[in-house]
Amino acid sequence: MLTRFAPSITGFIHLGHVYHLLVLFSLSKKLDLSVLLRAEDHDKQRFKQEYLESLFVDLKFLGIQCKGPTVYQSCSKKYYDDCLDFLIRKNLVYACKCSRSEILSNQHLNKSELHYSGKCKNKNLPFEGNTIRFKVEDKKIYFKDLILGHQTQNPFFQCGDFSIRDKLGNYTYQFVCVCDDIRQKITHVIRGEDILESTARQILLYRAFEAPIPNFFHHSLLYDKNGNKLCKTNKSESISEMIKNGISSDEIFAKALNLENPISLSRAYDYMDKGIM
Ligand SMILES: [Zn+2]
Question: For 18-27, how does the pLDDT look when each residue is reduced to its tens digit (9 = 90+)?
Fold first, then answer.
């Protein structure tokens, strides 16, 4: 059975990633899963080579080892194109020429995320140069999250027909994530609860590809002392910065777990094991 560590290569890894890795590896030990590494480097605009190089240095410093070979999304265009062709043949997608601002201005539902009305569904527009959307029916999706319990989501009301490729030809996170989980034969998806809301639309993609649906685990996130989620955008200190400042790996694990005293990796796994499930 397999799971994966799939960081997006759009910044340096930080304490939120370390916390995620501790959850991921302690659960994997408990469930006897191998952890594969996937470099989510499909975002050409935000990718930097130094982020990718630093990822390997940081993981090595922390003593965290994933099973190879690493999958690189940037080298996978042909595979994604084939996946898209499969959906086109099944008539599950269509092209849309609406801009983001047009969709926002027509959005009647007061939502935190973009909701598409299906305006271009029957227009038969060409795929090239337009956004490609996946057709979503009004149907509730039920699944069991193995940390949070039973969940019900209806993507028809959450987001409507969602984008799988933008007009410039960049595939979206939802699409590449599912395509890669299928080809890497991932059986267990372990990730932060900030992505919980997009699980049902990913399940729709698994069904469209006639692929087995993995087990889902969405764990809590690490917050800073002001209650902000730790991520690149709010400038949490990177692991590479900490290493440069002479902080040991045991001190980094302690910071990620909000503990006073340094803690070794194996003791950190045991510590997580008591709290997660
Ligand atoms: Zn449209």
Answer: 999 999 999 9
Ligand 1 centroid distance, CA of 94 (Å)? 9
Per DSSP, the residues of 118-134 read: -TTTTS---STTSEEEE
Q: Across residues 68-92, what is the average pLDDT?
A: 95
Distances (CA, A) of 188 to 8, 36, 42, 64, 118: 18, 11, 22, 19, 32
121 alpha carbon to ligand 1 midpoint, in Å? 7
CATH architecture of the domain 2-276 equals: 3-Layer(aba) Sandwich (3.40)
Q: pTM for this one?
A: 0.92
CB atoms within 10 A of CB 79: 16
Domain ranges of the chain: 2-276
What are the phi and psi torsion angles at 173 (to 5°)? -55, -50
Give the Å distance between the CA of 134 and the centre of ligand 1. Answer: 12
